[in-house]
Design a protein that fits this description.
The structure is a homodimer. By secondary structure, chain A is of the alpha/beta class. The first copy, chain A, folds into two domains: 5-53, Helicase, Ruva Protein, domain 3 (Orthogonal Bundle); 63-197, Dna Topoisomerase Vi A Subunit, Chain: A, domain 2 (3-Layer(aba) Sandwich), CATH 3.40.1360.10. Helix content of chain A is 40%, strand content 11%. Chain A is built from seven helices and six strands. In chain A, the strands form two sheets. Chain A has a four-stranded parallel sheet with strand order 4-3-5-6. A two-stranded antiparallel sheet of chain A has the order 1-2. In chain A, helix 6 (147-160) links the parallel strand 5 (138-141) and strand 6 (166-169). In chain A, helix 1 (5-15) packs across helix 2. Chain A is globular and about 65 Å long. The interface between A and B is large, with 52 and 53 residues.
């Protein structure tokens, strides 16, 4: 049996989202039919607005309503440090910590030969341009602790170091609150390697 | 840190959907920003259309673009049997089985004293009206195999039986506690074949 066309279209749209299969999409579509009118209107408006009103900051690559973004134009932030992340959402995690007050740079990806993405597929050229004639003293690389994240970190370090700017990497180790017995071996290895005197 | 307003609004909208918490909503919202324009436009259109262009069939209560629905107006279907289900999506599961050719009636709920829903909260009065002066010979009750579904089945059976119409219940080939919409087609077929008079 075919669903009524408007419902079938909505199921299709939901299925375009990551991690949502046919059953979940169907459940969500039926739910939408019974939602308040205003909530559905708001949902549709938000979708269009997120696509239309958001852009990437011309300087750092963060998602923003206005380019340059509020972080790049905030002169009270330390202008000597750049933290390099893979995706715009990583900035939110970092800002929620409230302890980093420098600048950011979003790569929008990683170097991954397996997926066929190379140095030219990440936002690295603009990072190098930013570093020239700047007050930047340290580049902190905050790519994920994955094979791709590590490869990208190594690539950037080699690219930046000749300019004399300090390049650091976020520490890897045990998550706070986690149990040692459940940690994977690579994490444990990183934790031992990165141990500090107390 | 606050998300840019259009993103925050979209996260809020996703969080209104069942089973989607803040983390998932955030992931989906970021994904939308990077989706194709046309896919996002289609998504927004589908949401509005699902809400605006779908209605409930005045006869059986199924979700439809036009009332009466295509099943109620299909004279090739057996006009002597009505299958009563809890929700419109249950009809789709039943139709996918392709072995039932009668009519349907959607209750839009169940009797559940725990949730404070009684006989007046389900679409039962219109079912009784349908049965009067009709050719209906059998009412198959396909409410879910849950406490509420069973209570609703019992209530309907008591209501209909005095009229002399045969009342049957889908067999418990359906696993107890499961929802009809998620049952596989063979299980549904067994359930129809094994239905018993109550």
């Amino acid at each position: 049996m075919l669903y009524p066309r408007p419902l079938a279209m909505l199921i299709d749209s939901f299925m375009k989202l990551p991690g949502i299969g046919e059953k979940t999409a169907t459940r969500l579509a039926f739910y939408v039919v019974e939602m308040q009118d205003e909530d559905v209107n708001q949902f549709a408006k938000s979708l269009l607005s997120a696509k239309r009103d958001l852009t990437f900051c011309a300087i750092c690559g963060d998602l923003t309503e206005e380019s340059p973004c509020s972080i790049c134009t905030d002169s009270s932030r330390e202008q000597t440090t750049i933290l390099v992340v893979e995706e715009a959402k990583d900035i939110v995690a970092m800002e929620n910590m409230r302890e980093y007050h420098g600048l950011y740079h979003v790569l929008h990806g990683t170097i991954s030969p397996m997926d066929g993405t190379g140095p030219e597929d990440i936002n690295a050229t603009s990072l190098i341009q930013r570093l020239q004639n700047s007050k930047i003293e340290e580049v902190i690389i905050g790519t994920n602790a994955t094979v791709e994240g590590e490869a990208t970190a190594m690539f950037l370090a080699r690219l930046i170091k000749p300019s004399g700017i300090k390049v650091t990497r976020l520490a890897h180790g045990l998550s706070v609150g986690s149990n040692l017995e459940y940690a994977d071996e690579i994490t444990l290895l990183k934790a031992v390697e990165g141990r500090r005197e107390i």
